[in-house]
Amino acid sequence: xxxxxxxxxxxxxxxxxxxxxxxxxxxxxxxxxxxxxxxxxxxxxxxxxxxxxxxxxxxxxxxxxxxxxxxxxxxxxxxxxxxxxxxxxxxxxxxxxxxxxxxxxxxxxxxxxxxxxxxxxxxxxxxxxxxxxxxxxxxxxxxxxxxxxxxxxxxxxxxxxxxxxxxxxxxxxxxxxxxxxxxxxxxxxxxxxxxxxxxxxxxxxxxxxxxxxxxxxxxxxxxxxxxxxxxxxxxxxxxxxxxxxxxxxxxxxxxxxxxxxxxxxxxxxxxxxxxxxxxxxxxxxxxxxxxxxxxxxxxxxxxxxxxxxxxxxxxx
Length: 316
Prior knowledge:
Blueprint: E1 10-16, H1 22-33, E2 38-40, E3 49-56, H2 64-67, E4 71-79, E5 81-83, E6 92-95, H3 102-110, E7 114-118, E8 127-128, E9 131-132, H4 133-137, E10 148-160, E11 164-171, H5 177-187, E12 192-202, E13 205-206, H6 213-217, H7 221-226, E14 240-242, H8 245-252, E15 257-258, E16 266-271, E17 277-283, E18 288-294, E19 297-299, E20 308-310
Parallel strand pairs: 3-12, 14-16
Antiparallel strand pairs: 1-3, 2-3, 4-11, 4-12, 5-6, 7-10, 8-9, 10-11, 12-13, 15-18, 16-17, 17-18, 19-20
């Protein structure tokens, strides 16, 4: 039996466990599916749990749609305690009494909704002079970081016991919930850190669609495959354009085609007449559709669409 499958593409919605890096979870999923190529749609810290979309094969070409998408989290913030990392994995650097009422918390939370500026945490993978910030932090060094604009679309208090608050956070890409927790504690005058984090949604995908690694282990290969979404699920929000054979061939050869009447401007999902997903094109408003990101295809003899077949991925 070959180590890798042939022509294997799809999207797995994985429920990542705590204590595991996103890459380690990716590698386990890749092994279970015997996939030759894989990538994930947005890193979760090892402490965090929840939705980690994993893309296999040609689906990795569209993973940026997930990285750029809105995210949703359930976050537990503990007030009165600051840590070196801004979360529960760091050493405690300060303890303060918490005298925060629910109305005070609600007022503070309201101040973080909308576009805000965050200073990225030192314990992050952002790079400075070619080195990730966490490498400086582990040496006890702190370097200057430029604030970044992010957007908090929704921030709701789900529970509050006077010391810990459970928050529902919906935010843009690039948002650090750890930093949000620290900034919220600072605004309340008592400090705080992120005690727990669970990602509940990425773009159109939600946690209730996800499967754990343990559940995958218990499934047969066919049952695992049934958990996969097709590659075009990543771009399902884009308008669909079905192509005639001649236009399909031209786009797959890198040529622009005349946009059919009524074609929406912007990025488009491209499909063959038989319904096969081809990738993305773009209508620039000039009457032409140009290829932007296509699945690999072989151009073979034939007509009416029969001459196309997905190129098999290499087997090692």
